Amino acid sequence: MKIVFDFGGVVFRWHPASFLARIWPHRIETLEQGAAAAAVFFQNYGGDWGLFDQGLISADEVVRRIAARTGWPLGEVAAVVRAVPDELMPIPATQVLIRDLRAAGHTLHFLSNMPLPFAEHLRKAYPLHEWFVSGLFSGHVKQIKPSAEMFALAERHFGVPPQELLFLDDHPVNVEAALARDWQAVLFTDPASARRELVSRRLLNA
């Protein structure tokens, strides 16, 4: 089986509500406020941020657009964007899951919505080539999940029929898009539940 990992929230830590609360303690006091601010800032990964994810605008441009759209100070918006790479820390239990899947003989790929500067940071900071045979970043291919084009690109890049791909992603809309392409897919909530699902599918031993 070829297993495809999303990155943010699956392989690497990404929890926008708590992230913004840490970066903007003067502005955000609760996780509820953080979630509301994240919905405005990241626009559910559409809008300005979606263009940044696709590599269609630069970091400076997304900062300018978000500040203009929201009225938040330019410097505060820039501080959030600068802080994202440090937020993207590997999730230890997912690293163990990756190790165990590789040891079980599965081929691992990744498919990530990731702006170019953050993708380059991850490539330099972590041995992605040791964890995964290959992968696609949205910023490099100028497409974005959940578009059918992104999944079609992945199928061609991985070189296998969609039915042989199992996708782990933490966003329901991306899981639904994968299923619509005849991939197998699992909604990732945490590494332990993902492991149980993979065991139930006989892809790992209990």
From TrEMBL:
Species this protein is from: Roseateles puraquae
SUPFAM superfamilies documented for this protein: HAD-like
Species classification: Bacteria, Pseudomonadati, Pseudomonadota, Betaproteobacteria, Burkholderiales
Protein name: Haloacid dehalogenase
Pfam families: Hydrolase
InterPro entries attached to this UniProt entry: HAD-like_sf, HAD-SF_hydro_IA, HAD_sf
PANTHER family to which the protein is assigned, alphabetical: ALPHA-D-GLUCOSE 1-PHOSPHATE PHOSPHATASE, FLAVIN MONONUCLEOTIDE HYDROLASE 1, CHLOROPLATIC
